Amino acid sequence: MAGYIGAIDQGTTSTRFIVYDDKGRVVGMDQKEHSQIQPRPGWVEHDPLEILNNAREVIRGALAKSGIRGRDLAGVGVTNQRETVVVWDRRSGRPFANAVVWQCVRTRGICDELIEKGGADRFRSTTGLPVSTYFSGPKIKWILDAVPEARQAAERGDALYGTMETWLIWWLTGGPEGGAHVSDVTNASRTLLLNIHTLEWEQDHLDILDIPRSGLPRIVPSSDAASWGPTSEDGPFGARVPVCGALGDQQAALVGQACFRRGEAKNTYGTGCFLLLNTGSEPVPSEHGLLTTPAYQFSAEKPAYCLEGAIANAGSLIRWLRDNLGLIRSPAEVEDLAAEVADNGGVYIVPAFSGLLAPYWRPDARGVITGLTGYATKHHIARAALEAAAYQTRDVAEAMNRDSGVPLRELRVDGGMVVNELLMQFQADILNVPVSRPGTTETTCLGAAYAAAIATGFWSAGDNPVAIWRTQTTWQPNMEQEERETAYSGWKKAVERSLGWAEE
User: Are strands 411-414 and 435-438 parallel, antiparallel or unpaired?
Assistant: First the structure.
């Protein structure tokens, strides 16, 4: 058997490919950023062809760096930014428009009309989701409505649509020459179109959104022993490698963090923050602004479910300090800047650049900096930017505790921001629970590799990454209760100031 497993991580800002050995160790990696296209305030797009070309480049790059060939891989898994959508021509593979990114709020008019006619929770009983600009079904409708060529192709059955794993898998397995058009249950569940109980497309929702069913992908498990087809020999792998694992990025991190038992939770600190709690084999309805969604499904097994709180802006706020304000030259500098002061000096930043997601679901919110006085410095602003991620996480954790009835006892963390020790300590303080960082922070890619590995028999379900996952650092809370609640009260007031800014 081939001795390695590969995983593509198609993220919001970059695409990377990692090669793992049979112990889950990284033996090769390559990564490349792609353009962030913002044609209007609140609109965010990506060029799907740029992402596809980047994926091909990083696959070749990681293989070259590791000194192995494509035929040495037992299989390939894919993880991706979940709600970002592409609509393309099934004959040529040409996108009809740029991909509409999960952060984009251009579908607010569509969502407002859906809410007006049936309420924000009209689809929640079947999908586990509220109506929101966050999800990809309204994005598909927007493209079909805005691009006449796309609508005409969809009506003829010549248009395909899907999230980024669907786009990449289709191309990797042949594209116009018979590529597999599939979406795993975790990504399909983010569309407002999937019935999470039956794991089938819900025709009533398709009719309401006027989305032809013919363009939707086939729904498959996250780890599919039957595979969706091999890569082509003339592609970046140079060999026929089974593509057999796919998970939305946050579910991939849950798997990579070995949160397989009910009540285990992880938070990923990337462009946004995503806190997921494993609720077991039954979906738990949320009454406090969270999402009920599949966590993973291995082959024909019953899926596991989770509660999720999605936060739109965390690491993106730090990049804003760098790119828009010029306050820092690199994200790593923000910790040193923030460490110059003992607290935020009364300054709070609510990074509602395109509205607030869980648990508020307010697309009318916009970013604010509050509590400014003549005492405030750039150090306080840097600290407030870091603290914003921790405060938003507490908002979600409190909602999660109320929905599940199980108090959070530990938070496993991953993502680019977890190297920031000041943030991790503050997170433990404001949550009043231990925060644990594993030895590897590349848990998203590891989860995708795991999905492919169990499909091929490379690893056994349950053996990895449970055996791989080890705590590297744990931060214990050391903040007094009165100080904690006073600080959090200030955050809640700042959130109130952010609401109601955006007009239709």
Answer: parallel
